[in-house]
Design goal:
0% strand, mainly alpha
């Protein structure tokens, strides 16, 4: 069994440890910790990517350069892509 917990370091407390103990009982477990990178920060790090994303947000606000389709068209496209 594998479980992933995503939480802030300040949320690590005795009740969290107790819940892990209750979940895994007497089984041996491995705990791995990594710092999670903020996705927005990552995407905006590159100047070119930031420009592209901000343009896309602007386009949405101005209702331009949008691709529209009906739910039926979506279903047909999905079916076509899945059968390829």
């Amino acid at each position: 069994m594998e479980t992933v917990f995503k939480l802030k370091a300040k949320e690590l407390d005795k009740s969290f440890i107790d819940s892990v103990r209750n979940l895994y009982k007497d089984h041996e477990i491995e705990i791995s910790i990594k710092q999670v990178q903020d996705e927005t920060e990552y995407l905006l790090k590159s100047p070119e990517n930031k420009r592209h994303l901000l343009e896309a947000i602007n386009d949405i606000k101005k209702n331009k350069n949008l691709i529209r389709f009906t739910s039926q068209e979506f279903e047909e496209l999905t079916e076509k892509l899945l059968n390829v």
